[in-house]
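Section 5: illustrative case.
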């Protein structure tokens, strides 16, 4: 009898503890836990601008500031570098002519035309016409030098001065005429000068030349000097 009562009490205790165990199991089960969404843990950086990440465009090099280039002053260029092929020069010419029959100092006009093949070499034609004092019994002295050849210049320069040199060959015509001798003879002209660039169209020129002529059955070694202006076109 006592055993039956003890068994009944144990059965009642087990039945009473089952609902409490089921409730505790439900509380610890994964389905009973509250769901967490990714949006619930995100932070709104718009509320705190200092914490906001830099925009992706800053990673590109196009938005980065570039250093300013230095201002380079424009260089003074030769006429061929500026696009002009022709140089027409005209000016005053002084000629000292010394020969066996007579000597004379002459003044006249110098005309020169050059076609520039590039910025350092050109084809040149030169003409000098000069008149001097009376010689050989009162006859006026006259001098004409006509030559062609090549001219070499220093090319483009950052300065206004452009030096050059030329080698020309041609002929000379001198008056008065000596008996049984021709007024005409061979001429070789060697010299150079410099152009001072005023603007793209105009330059000033100074030059000096050594001139060797073959007249009166002998050779002559003379000099001439000139100044003038040069038109580029």
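Designed sequence:
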């Amino acid at each position: 009898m006592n055993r039956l009562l003890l068994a009944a009490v144990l059965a009642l205790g087990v039945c009473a503890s089952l609902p409490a165990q089921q409730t505790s199991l439900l509380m610890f089960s994964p389905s009973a836990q509250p769901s967490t969404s990714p949006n619930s843990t995100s932070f709104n950086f718009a509320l705190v601008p200092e914490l906001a990440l830099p925009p992706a465009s800053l990673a590109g090099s196009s938005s980065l500031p570039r250093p300013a280039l230095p201002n380079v002053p424009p260089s003074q260029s030769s006429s061929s570098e500026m696009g002009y092929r022709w140089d027409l020069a005209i000016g005053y010419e002084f000629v000292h002519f010394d020969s066996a029959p007579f000597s004379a100092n002459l003044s006249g006009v110098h005309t020169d035309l050059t076609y520039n093949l590039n910025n350092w070499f050109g084809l040149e034609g030169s003409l000098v016409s000069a008149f001097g004092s009376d010689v050989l019994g009162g006859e006026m002295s006259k001098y004409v030098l006509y030559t062609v050849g090549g001219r070499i210049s220093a090319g483009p320069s950052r300065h206004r001065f452009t030096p050059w040199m030329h080698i020309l060959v041609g002929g000379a015509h001198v008056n008065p005429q000596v008996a049984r001798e021709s007024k005409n003879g061979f001429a070789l002209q060697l010299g150079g000068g410099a152009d001072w660039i005023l603007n793209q169209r105009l330059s000033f020129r100074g030059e000096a030349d050594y001139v060797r002529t073959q007249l009166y059955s002998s050779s002559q070694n003379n000099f001439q000097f000139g100044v003038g202006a040069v038109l580029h076109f």
